[in-house]
Amino acid sequence: MFEHQAVETLAKVAGSAWGTVVGDPVNQLPLTPVMHWLFARDGSFNHLSQSVLLTVPKGVDVLHITTAIDTLLGRHDMLRAQLESGTLRVRPLGAIRASDVLQRCIANSGLCEAVATQSRIAVAALNPAAGVMMRATWFDRGVDRSSRLLLTLHQLVVDGASWRILMADLALMWAGRSLRPVGTSFQTWARSLPARARSTAGLNRWLEVGAGAGGRLDCRPLDPTLDIMATMRSLNATLPPEQTGRLIETAPAASGSQITDVLLTALVRAIGQDHLLVDVETHGRDELDPEMDLTRTVGWFTAVHPVRLRLGGHHVHGGDPVDYGLLRWLNPDTGPTLAALPSAQITFSYLGRITAPGDGDWTLAPESAVVASGMDMRLACTHVLDVTVIVRDSADGPEVNATWTWPSRLLSQGRVESLVGCWLRELGLLARDARAR
């Protein structure tokens, strides 16, 4: 797309890209399980969001950026969503344009400071009820230098897989290549969920997961009026490349499990409880029938489900993570039963493997570390401890990077540091044991 310089040609290519979306004439969609989970929390989620800062190639100008943003808005319906009376409405093509969401910032110097400031402004500008689900900030450094593009999206419309889709679209546009068709719309997927929620075939397995209190962290209970995002503290931890390489290459195969199970095994060992209930977040992109294709669909598909960890392994899973959310939030008969079960104090998310920030076009920019947090400071915390893990490919090899987050009223910094140290040590032992088999 960016190969074409004339405005008329750019518009024609953008219009062609919009036409690859599978049509969905119905613009209303019901709340999905993860959206119900968010709406059940106390406090505001107006500014709950995710952001990425991308390296933009040399030679890109305002016309290129504007056309790219217009194309993303046209292709991906959820970027045009608006929250109305407890449901989401997708506005028609053209209802929101790049000029509505794009901010240009001249950044000939002081790039890090500009990114930090503008990212805070972008997060503060989000407003789902007003239909402001997206903000884009272009840090213009002149055509002779690579610039930066900050994309900030409300949590209601994005997940980790969505970012990969959006970044791939931008790279394909810059290369002048056709954009691959978007398959099943988020609306179609969301509207298929209530029918599936009527099946209670898996209920007993989820009841087994939640049966019994299990191990608990020794701390005061959560108070939604006191334990809000503004009180959260965080700690970052890294497993060195040598140990990470052994862990991801040998430990899952040696134990007959996935890398997520290995990370969770280290967690229950670090906590030191025989049984531990943990809420696990997964991608949730289940294609509910063979006709669905979600590989190019942008939206918040995340599924949250409980897993009972056992110190000796063989963790208790209830089945398809999406099914738990359906039974918990969309089935009025089973929802109260599952809600009455003991709740997990810990939430865990493995986001997969990514490339470390660098200078590659349309990849994470080196200044990504200064991008503002997407937490809404008034939103109530749901767990005592949140553990988010990625495997990052660095110049020295893959590294396990983990962020541990907690409400400061409930856990001390020293206690979390001790838990993190135990977790890293257990990961190292699992990697060593797997290699010895």
Describe the structure in your own words:
Helix content is 35%, strand content 21%. With 437 residues, it is an alpha+beta fold. It has 2 domains: 7-189, 2-Layer Sandwich (Chloramphenicol Acetyltransferase); 220-436, Chloramphenicol Acetyltransferase, CATH 3.30.559.30. The strands form 3 sheets. The protein has a 6-stranded mixed beta sheet with strand order 8-13-12-11-9-10. Helix 2 (33-39) crosses helix 11 (321-330). The termini are far apart.
Measured as a percent range, the helix fraction is: 25-40%
CATH structural class of the largest domain: Alpha Beta
In the CATH hierarchy, the third-tier topology of the largest domain is known as Chloramphenicol Acetyltransferase
Largest sheet: 6 strands, mixed
Protein name: Non-ribosomal peptide synthase protein (TIGR01720 family)
GO molecular function: catalytic activity
Domain Condensation: 44-313
Pfam families: Condensation
Explain briefly what this protein structure is.
The protein has 437 residues and is α+β, with helices and mostly antiparallel strands. It has helices spanning 7-18, 33-39, 62-75, 98-101, 111-125, 160-174, 186-197, 203-210, 241-255, 259-271, 321-330, 335-339, 413-436, and strands at residues 28-29, 49-56, 81-84, 87-90, 102-106, 134-140, 147-154, 232-239, 275-282, 303-310, 346-355, 385-394, 397-407. The strands form 3 sheets. Strands 8-13-12-11-9-10 form a 6-stranded mixed sheet.
